[in-house]
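Request: When convenient, would you put together a sequence paired with its structure tokens?
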Amino acid sequence: MGFRLTPIFITNQASVSNEELLEAVGLTGLIKGKVVDFYTTNKDQDTVFIGSKGDCKILCDGDLCYEAFVGESRLLRLKDCEIAAIIWNETADNYGFCLIKNGKIERKVMVSDGDVSYDYGQPIQEEIDLANDSLFEPEEIEEILEREGQEGLEKTIKSEIICRATNRIVKRYLGAKLVEIQESIELYEYEEV
């Protein structure tokens, strides 16, 4: 059993109420429900959750998160902030992030089952740092080269960088990588009326 999380981190929104932010991104007609921990949103793609940590709002809604990758995202309506929509699906081997600043997409990357499905914009620092790291042991590199050739090795390295960068980018907003968060972060569940 793996994590399947779709958090959206939005900076500079601490003074905005949860309801105002939901309305700004077109999620209306919802009522506040129970308080849950961030990891409780795991695999619950059809429910809306929202809370905050410091100056960052955390909004979990699978549809809104995926929309950042595939269509005209309602997240582009938000200005004067940085937004990171994160896809972390260990079950389907699907990882990626869409970074939006001041209403414009700056970087959008996703890997699905080893294949890069989105690659827009310039690599961010988290990706650059990983590109300079040794991601695989020499023996692993030799095995990949034998099995898949040079092109396969390059594809595997790119996929691994995207996966690891997705985990690392969360540290910008929560102070820990996605799979290393130790503290309880409370979010409110919002349901349709």
The chain has a mean pLDDT of 90.
